[in-house]
Amino acid sequence: MKALKLLDSIMEKVCAFLMIFMCLSSFAQVANRFIFHRSFIWTDEIVLFSMVWVTFFGSALAVSRNTHTRIDFFVSLFSPKVRAYLLAFSDLLCAVFCVALAYISLPVYQKNLKIYSSGLHLPNAISYFAIIAGCIIMVAYFIVLAVREVKSLGVEVVKEGGEKT
Fold first, then answer.
1. Which residues face 116 on adjacent strands?
2. Residue 20 CB coordination number (10 Å)
């Protein structure tokens, strides 16, 4: 679990840095166009690359905190035991989806290793690697969430008034 907390901390810092960098780059671009009537050729690409990384690392952070989008209206109608199994199944299903997405992204990543961006002259594969890395991290978090849901069944919850569920 310490490794997951360390990973969370690293991803938070990377996302924060990239968000600040995107804002500063965009501001520099706008200021340069307004003041000098010229534009930097690298800002659009750096903002695009950063946005993709922030999207997938941010998604992984949302999964780690169990705050990802989930419609649980119907799930909340079931007993706690059935609810835990449904949520665990849902998490495992999301993990399978992330594995499939990472697998499908591999050939696209490989093809884009040879294609370079026009401004930064970096491989376009940088953006596609964010998909693969984010999905792998999300798979780990989804599995942890599923295990936690199933383990929560063994713990008796005491409500107010001393009533056990």
1. 123
2. 11
The pLDDT mean for the chain works out to 90
Q: Are 142 and 91 in contact (CB under 8 A)?
A: yes
pLDDT digits (tens, 9 = 90+) for 111-133: 999 999 988 899 999 999 999 99
* Residue 108 half-sphere exposure toward CB, CA atoms < 13 A: 13
The whole-number pLDDT of residue 161 equals 52
Burial of 91 (0-12, 13-18, 19+ CB in 10 A): buried
Q: How far is CA 121 from CA 30, 31, 110, 116, 118, in A?
A: 22, 24, 17, 5, 6
- CA–CA distance, 155 with 165 (Å, rounded to integer): 10
Range with top average pLDDT, 9-23, 28-42, 63-77: 9-23
Residue 88 contacts residue 146 (beta carbons within 8 Å): yes
Write the CB contacts of 62 (distance below 8 Å, at least 6 apart in sequence): 68
Short-list 32, 12, 10, CA closest to 20: 12
